[in-house]
Design goal:
Length: 398
């Protein structure tokens, strides 16, 4: 089986919900990330065999984002594209799909892009197609509805949303509010320190945002990081569920961003003048109960370790998406591993944000650039997934 290499992982800065990137649609963000990958690598678009896009909140304004964004970015019309959705794991799954295409010889060069414009997720109505006989019609917030409907209610009952799943884990694993707030504060402090030290410079591709008047404004830096955050300031916030541990301050954000990379057959790297950062070394997915979806990385990583033989102790860096601080802490207890010097060293979902479809590729960019700085070998990326899944992948620095 052929080896699949990761080339030029990058991302836009992450915008807050309704923030600096609100006026840019998902297709515009994705097209920008695609163009940046081509500009940085010098690769001709005609060399791309496939475009795979991760997006969890797709829209008919730009259907099949993989194809739509590829065309918008100026790729040749002969280059095909498709879109996938594994919720929070979508971006990583797109990388995995690309790697499997390369490993099996179906493709030599695959461009992966992950995108979400959560600020532009629409409201929708199920009552209008055939008309409403009388009375009012109801509009749903697609963003919130997707969290409430993550499981068949007939089988699992009603789950109010993702905070409920985190509270379930907090009770099961004995995670306190104080522990959650300390974890969240650490995430913000690490992300702020990474920006100040210039550690995101190589992975971030700034983007120009058009204005109603005047010249476009260049958006260059993640805007959800709160460097001043401390456990004490977080302790003053009200919990989402009365008496619970989850607050707006120790949960992941809603965000806008795009991220992209190339996945290339190692045998073609020299010919295409491409410099790899890592080799795709394995992956695993696992299911868990939807009401405790946050524990998904525990069975997923256990399966990955069995497949690859590489253990958590061998990892130089671990990227665990921070859906909620309580959820991340429960995963660490489930692993029986909590080396914070190797975990999310530059922050994660609580501080950098969680633009669902883009997160997996964003995490990969952060992981591989930091792995290179540290001259490490093994990097693990893993996340929980709404609906009750976990996803994990192993990368070896080249």
């Amino acid at each position: 089986m052929r080896q699949a290499a990761i080339v030029s992982p990058l991302r836009t800065p992450v915008g807050t919900f309704g923030g600096s990137l609100r006026t840019l649609t998902a297709d515009q963000l994705a097209a920008h990330a695609i163009r940046e990958v081509l500009a940085r690598t010098g690769l001709d678009g005609s060399a791309i065999d496939e475009v795979i896009c991760a997006q969890s909140y797709s829209s008919s304004e730009a259907p099949c984002m993989g194809r739509y964004a590829a065309l918008e970015a100026g790729l040749p019309i002969e280059v095909p594209g498709y879109t996938l959705d594994r919720r929070c794991g979508s971006g990583l799954q797109a990388v995995i799909d690309a790697a499997m295409q390369v490993q099996t010889g179906v493709a030599d060069v695959v461009l992966v892009v992950g995108v979400e414009s959560m600020s532009n997720i629409e409201y929708y109505c199920n009552d209008m197609r055939w008309g409403s006989r009388s009375g009012s019609v109801q509009f749903h917030d697609r963003l919130q509805r997707g969290r409430e409907r993550s499981q068949p209610q007939e089988r699992f009952g009603v789950i109010s949303g993702m905070p409920e799943t985190a509270e379930n884990l907090a009770r099961e694993y004995g995670i306190t509010r104080a522990e959650s707030d300390a974890f969240a504060a650490r995430s913000h402090q690490r992300a702020a320190a990474a920006w100040e030290a210039g550690r995101f410079a190589d992975e971030v591709a700034p983007i120009d945002v058009p204005q109603k008047r005047g010249a476009p404004v260049r958006f260059e830096r993640d805007e959800g990081i709160r460097a001043e955050t401390t456990p004490q300031t977080l302790a003053a916030l009200k919990s989402v569920i009365a008496g619970g541990t989850v607050t707006a301050g120790n949960a992941s954000q809603q965000n806008d961003a795009a991220a992209a990379c190339l996945v290339v057959a190692e045998s073609r790297l020299a010919e295409l003048n491409l410099k790899p950062m890592a080799r795709f070394a394995g992956w695993a997915a696992a299911g868990c109960h939807p009401a405790s979806m946050g524990i998904g990385p525990v069975p997923a990583v256990a399966k990955l370790v069995r497949r690859t033989g590489v253990t958590l102790e061998q990892m130089d860096l671990v990227e665990l998406n921070e859906a909620f601080a309580a959820q991340a802490l429960a995963v660490l207890k489930g692993w029986g591993w909590a080396d914070l010097e190797r975990l999310n060293v530059n922050g994660s979902g609580i501080s950098l944000g969680h633009p669902i479809g883009a997160t997996g590729v964003r995490m990969l960019a952060t992981l591989l650039h930091e792995l290179r700085r540290r001259n490490g070998r093994w990097g693990l990326e893993t996340m929980c997934i709404g609906g009750g899944q976990g996803l994990a992948a192993l990368f070896e620095r080249i």
